[in-house]
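Form 12-C: Joint structure prediction
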Amino acid sequence: AQTVTQSQPEMSVQEAETVTLSCTYDTSESDYYLFWYKQPPSRQMILVIRQEAYKQQNATENRFSVNFQKAAKSFSLKISDSQLGDAAMYFCAYRSARGNEKLTFGTGTRLTIIP
Amino acid sequence: NAGVTQTPKFRILKIGQSMTLQCTQDMNHNYMYWYRQDPGMGLKLIYYSVGAGITDKGEVPNGYNVSRSTTEDFPLRLELAAPSQTSVYFCASSQYAGGEMANYGYTFGSGTRLTVV
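Section 2 - Result
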């Protein structure tokens, strides 16, 4: 079974600075997808960014980018120019490219933005 | 364009009571899921469905039941509620994984906060 580990329960960053959230995963599969979800206090789960394992290029969405290291099974999220609205829980998630589409989540990192 | 709609948003149950959490999606997604999120934890899969009439257990199915009679609806039934079922419940949907569709994430509902006392 796949597992996803987020070793940083909490992180904080000064507004306008850059922060990196860590995620590692364990799988025996070669084809899969990785995601970062944001959960603000409203509780809504919002997809931030996704990465296909077969792509070497790291995904980027505006101020959000990932560092995908397939051999190391690492998938970190970098948030540049942090804004107050970035404050939330961030979950890393894994999904196999085959089978029944289940997402496996990490335990989350709570990100605080310091004004 | 509602996406995934969950009702109710909040509920307090007494031990031993039963209830159904409703979930409806209007995107014609064939995959639907129920997750629970305990404080300080990630989401754990309760049940999922790959299409109408087909359901299967996830990691933590005990104490729950589901049905999928239509593509749109995927209700979660709690029988004999217990304090251990106090949690936030999320319903989600996704489209079949194949080709370019495979990298789509889930669409989540806004969650139901359930307290069992």
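Section 3 - Comments
The longest strand of chain A covers residues 88-96. Chain A has a mean pLDDT of 93.
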